[in-house]
Each structure stands twice: as C-alpha cells, then as structure tokens.
Holliday junction branch migration complex subunit RuvA (Loktanella atrilutea), 216 residues
Amino acid sequence: MIGRIAGRLDYRAADHVLIDVRGVGYLVHVSDRTMAGLPGNGEAVALYTDLLVREDVLQLFGFTSLVEKEWHRLLMGVQGIGAKASLAILGALGPEGVSKAIALGDWHALAKAKGVGPKIAQRAAIELKNKAPAVMAMGGDVVDSDDVVIAEDTPAGRPRKAAAKANPAQGEALSALVNLGYAPSDAAAAVAEAMTPESTTGEVIRAALKLLAPKG
C-alpha cells in the first residue's frame, strides 16, 4: 500500500497530477479543493494517498490531510458513491465540511456536490453518522512538504506556500466532551455546530456544552 508520496510536481491535469519521485512518475487523482492548494509545477509536494485496486486498473488518490483521506475511504464504502463522487463531495465541502455535515446529518450539504443526488446523500449521512466522532477526533494532521528535497537542477518555480494547518480544537473538544460522559454522536454534532476556523478548544467546549444542555 502506498500511503504517502513526496516529490516534485511535474504537471497537473483537470482531475489529477503527476508527481516525480526520484525519476518515477506517479499519477495521483485529487479533488478540486486539493488541486487548488497545490504548489506550482517543478515545486516540492507531498500528499497522503489511497490506492484503489481493481481487476483492470490501479488508481492513486491524494489528500492533504489524514481526515480527508479517511472520509474518502468511508464515503467509498457507501453504496452509490464511487471515487469520482467522493472527490466531488470533498472538493465541494472540504474534510471539515464533510465532518460537520455528517455529524449533523445534513444530507442537503452533501447533495450540493456534483453528481451526488438526494438519495445517495441521505444514505451517506445515515450510514456514516456514527463514524463522524472518530474521524473528527483524528485532529488536523496535514501532510508536510518541507522535508522533500529537490535536486539542484530542478527548474525553479514560484515560492511554495506552506500547507495550512487544520484547527486542532475540533478533535480536542470532542475528546473532552466524550470524557465528560456525552455520547460520541451527540458530542460530535455539538462540536460541529460550535466549531469555527478560529475557535480555541475552550471556546468550542463551552459552546458545545450550551448546545448539549437540557432544553426547557
């Protein structure tokens, strides 16, 4: 299994890139969102990968974070969702958006992805709801290209942007709420609703506790 690829970005197409790893070119399919965040041709790049094995084809799919990779794996397990639909969902919502939609049972958000109808979106929201807490608790592990060494004769490109680090507050808050005795599914839904990109762990916990408080 190829779990991570690090090398030089040779070229990009509409839905895939070619990464040169010490003279061997790997064709890696990525979502629109991941594609937009990649560096320019000739620059260092690293992606987590998942290998799809079929009788007639081997396909690599690339992701900037372990959360994105895990959601791809889980989405692919839902009847009616193939690799193309999974990447469409991740491209439309991003891994954090998928976590929120699944935790809240918001199939309407999933259905906004190209090629994903209401029935499939509802099936995914129902089947994966109990998976959301574990994925959200994985935190913000983002693949790092800083350790990729490019030979001196590599064509110079524009300066590479550092990969944005995901907010770790989501996983930390979820873990804290579960430790307090809340059901993982309830805690995940509350954290998803309370979470913002700038939130600290304490802010998410406090907001989630208010949402979990008995009504009436």
